[in-house]
Amino acid sequence: MCGVPCGPDGAAPAELTPADLTTARLALRRLELPDAAFLAREGGRPEVARMVARIPSPCPALASEHFVLATRAAEAIRGDLVRLITWRTDGAPLGVIGLHPHGDGVWELGYWLAASAWGRGIATEAGAAMIADARIRGIERLIAGHFSDNPASARVLIKLGFAYSDGGSATDMFSMGRMARAAHRTMALHIGPQTG
Fold it and tell me: Partner of 5 for a Cys bridge, out of 33, 49, 124, 173, CB 3.0 to 4.6 A?
């Protein structure tokens, strides 16, 4: 048994976890327990957590450690795909992005970025990589959403090809970062099977 966060085979992980997906600027890699400090610090900032349903603010380190472990279990059991978004050059963390099964072939795309990473096209670039990977995996339909007071996330999803579902009407969703319900809008994207 290793004395540091271990891989599924019980071996110590390499110093840098290799990226699963790369883009021109980004590397998307599996979450590791040491990432919990970044998740708690940046995800728990009020301006970030209030735009996400399941991140408290402040976010205790233990909650982030639980998130990493629960995510790894969900990947093994349900096939979820959650990745840390990092700079490709130096591995510095920027945020998190993931795909989660909802049944009937529908998967949810979710993401958040550290506030210091906003406005640089990072969410769009990471989202495009995840959608391309979803297509390769045979996923045909994605859903995503944003709180109505988060127009930046709406713009990202529209750039990725999502369109409002249910006529674009808002429903209330609880946000742990707000500790309140807020108007939330759902979008969908049909990516179809891979061709050619």
Answer: 33
